[in-house]
């Protein structure tokens, strides 16, 4: 994978800021969804979903809006809002069979998602560093080679976030540091 990024685009306009954020795990409606929301509210670190957010140094164009799309190639995300969220999750996270497969330790089809937000989340979002490269370009290239067979503990949102942050800012195992800094709490 390192060879893919050997000629990464150098950032000419300044340093892009890189953040990690925690969000509730998605689940089927009913008790499972209530359990995931409660776990997130109680800051249970192991029951949270992690994403990487890039805030470009240059301001967004006017009329920013929230966008969401699935990353299927090495094409860059639309350039019309303030922050870009990079995410890896099950292809069908609200399907009961997906949940059962994940709980049993089996691999499920995953998907890399990229979406735009007008601003950073107000809570559970941590600055982890600045990228000397064009962070969106590097993340787009990272997505193009990411294995999408998701297996909790082996190739999941944590591995994705740790890998992307390491590539962008050079810090290994950023989620472990954030966990330790917060005494295991989100």
Mean pLDDT: 78
Alpha-carbon distance between the two ends: 30 Å
- Number of self-contained structural domains: 1
Number of helices: 5
Strands, total number: 7
Q: Which overall shape is indicated by the principal axes computed on the Cα atoms?
A: globular
Helix content: 25-40%
Order of helices and strands: EHEEEHEEHEHH
Beta strand %: 25-35%
Q: Tell me about the biggest sheet?
A: 7 strands, antiparallel
Radius of gyration: 16 Å
The SS-based structural class is: alpha+beta
Ranges where pLDDT stays below 50 over 5 or more residues in a row are 6-13, 60-78
Oligomer: single chain
Task: Describe the fold and architecture.
This is PTB domain engulfment adapter. The chain contains 5 helices and 7 strands. The chain is an alpha+beta fold and 186 residues long. It has one domain. Strands 1, 2, 3, 4, 5, 6 and 7 form a 7-stranded antiparallel sheet that branches. The longest helix is centred in the last third of the chain and has 13 residues, at 157-169. The two termini are 30 Å apart.
SSE layout and pairings?
Layout lengths: L15 E9 L6 H11 L6 E8 L11 E4 L12 E8 L5 H8 L4 E10 L7 E7 L3 H11 L3 E2 L6 H13 L4 H8 L5
Antiparallel strand pairs: 1-2, 1-6, 2-4, 3-5, 4-5, 5-7
Protein name: PTB domain engulfment adapter
Organism: Salix dunnii
List keywords for this structure.
alpha+beta; 5 helices; about 190 residues; seven-stranded antiparallel β-sheet; globular; 7 strands
